[in-house]
Write a structure and sequence with these properties.
heterodimer, A: 507 residues, alpha+beta, Hypothetical Protein Pfu-838710-001, CHAD domain, 3 domains, B: alpha/beta, 12 helices, binds adenosine-5'-triphosphate, binds magnesium ion
Amino acid sequence: MTAHSRWLIKDSESTELLLEQYRHKFNLEPMQIRHETLSFYDDFEWHLWRKNQLLASNNQGLVLRVDNSLLSFFDREKPPVFAKDFDNPQLREALQKLTKGRRLFPMAELEVEFCQYAVRNKDLKKVCDLNVILTGYGTMVELKALRGYDKEYRQCLNIVLNGEPNELEHHIFLNSLKLLGIHPSDYTARPKFKLAPELDTCDAIALIAQKLWHNVRSNEEGIIRDWDIQFLHQYRVALRRMRALFSQMKQSLGKEESQWFKTHLAELARPTNRLRDLDVYLKSEENYLSLIPHSFHEGLQKLFKDLSRERHQEQKKLAAELRSPEYRSKISLLESHLALCPKSPTKKGHKPVLKLAARQIISRYNAISMDALEITDTSPDEQVHEVRLGCKKLRYLLEFFADLFPKQQIRLLLKALKQLQDNLGEFNDLSVQRESLEQYLEQNKVAPDTQAAIHALNGVLYNRQQQERARVRAQLESFLSEDVRQGVESLMPKPTAPETKTGRLSV
Amino acid sequence: MKTLACYSIKGGVGKTASSVNLAYLAAQAGYRTLLIDLDSQGASSFYFRVRPSKKNWGKRFFKTYEQLLKQIKASDFEHLDIIPAHESFRHFDALLSDQGKRELRLKRVLKGLKKEYDLIVLDCPPTLSYLSEAVFHAANMIVVPVIPTTLSERTYEQLQDFFGKHGLPTKMIYPFFSMVQRQKQLHKSTIERMQDDTPRLLDTLIPFSTDIEKMGEHRSPVSCFAARSAGGQAYEELWQEISRKLKKL
Ligand SMILES: Nc1ncnc2c1ncn2[C@@H]1O[C@H](COP(=O)(O)OP(=O)(O)OP(=O)(O)O)[C@@H](O)[C@H]1O
Ligand SMILES: [Mg+2]
């Protein structure tokens, strides 16, 4: 019921005029006037900005959040670093979800003046709230009605509307930041390749590789400075995608060039393996603790202390590696090759990408289907892993080429694949986790209570893994269903010439 | 949602001062609070600068909750709304006397507000009437300001008798001393006597305070302009004591 509206006024003169009109008709009492220098924060992927959200701090305890257009204040908060560190639970939860645990960086500054006025009647009773926010790029006027004072609200509204203000679609902060020239970086964890269907396949490959390479390079600094663990993760994902690209499209690019890239990319990934493993373990500490009885917690916490010590060392090592001249020279070598790619594409490489991509996706799907058909509830784990690897390859193909196809044609396949991969991935993760815990026991001198905790944990993980295993058959069924198969087959562009031939024959 | 009534048969004992300050402090503490000014004099509306309603709605007050909602006005303070007094409240008794189950009507209508408010504060006129009976049925707790004089002591006993005769539970009546002047021998001895034999007597004493008197000048609760004065502190303490009791109800 409470009405609430906001407008943009461009110059300060009209703002003064507006206030004057309020003073004429009402008693205008300034309740609070404060100047703040606000730093605005976002993460490396601009998750907040992209969702119409802003986060700011005066770096003196005050944090502001703009959710679409709604501004809220939070007192006694530290300047933002990670969303999980906020004291206020609503702020913390909302931002953790939005930033996906990524580190927050200051991205711009604004000088802001907040003026809060109480609009009062003859009895000096407040009948309306009037907020004016000035940023130097414009003034936002905001009017809030008070229950039971509708007539007065309408009068206040008319005063504003008489000045013919601009409607304000976003919060004044967002407007001002845009005017300041702030815009999100072009980095995204999932770059869009926007391939033209008739592009030569070999050129498409080069284009995809270059975009992925951009992601590799963009994450280096974050890894070196250890800003958050996503930098390393996304660095590795980009490398893995590139390797998958060269390996799966080798027939278009030529064996030799593909192999060269695969080898050199693998070399970049290798020194990052251990650190990523450690990041994954450390991230699962809370989850692990929740899986075993309290009496084992101390033992397990020792393990994690140990791992976080190792992580510290590993991170330093990797940072030094990434700063080294050797790494630089590997990078420039790769970049020169990427610039020249494709060097000597095959005949297939000159075919349009749409057709080749479709063929590749269909044959990959068929290959997985063949393997999947043989899997029963009792098949050995290796066979399940085979299917999982096939799915991964298919997933990469879809990531590269999905945009070439109409959305609804590919939707079913993507959905079925995602569900199957979640299931198979979880199954595999659990087995990897168990193995590495075993390995830790073998390779280290482990205190008895830590041993006991690890055994307890392994028991729980084993049960989980069995539960995942039991779901595999059903997931495979839906992946093999007729709908999905038809969807996959429809990806092939209709061959025009042969059809006319058969047409003529049948006459 | 809890309903707290400030009531006394006697006039000028500090019912309105208490309603206004307690409602304000409750809202400050985060309770979504509605103060209903049941006294046609409109004293508590006055303290919040809300004009008594002119529209003729007294007749409908007990009819529907929708009618009630239309009367609600925001105060200047967060979490605090007010239903201002109305002249026709004077005729409540006449209105109520021809309605069946009249004493339960107020209770039923207020029930409709339980989603919106955590606490209803009723500022009552100094009468013993159908309206007060309705208030007794609607309230979870009735606080009674008592000026420590022999006369007040007697009126307080009258109230208890009334409860007894009408089968109302006396256990929701909580008296407290108001406008206490320690230096007066009469006040001192009355306090001592009553403290010995009055059930549910609240510990907090509200002193006679010029700051509380000045509420009329400021047209706002004492905590707004003199929170640290003796009067301001006393009401803060009284609210703490009452809120502890309310939570247990
Ligand atoms: N503790 C106090 N110290 C000094 N003055 C007080 C105190 N409490 C109330 N007063 C003053 O005494 C007068 C009566 O108080 P109040 O209006 O609160 O009593 P009431 O019981 O509501 O009266 P009524 O029965 O007329 O509604 C008011 O002028 C008020 O300012
Ligand atoms: Mg009164």
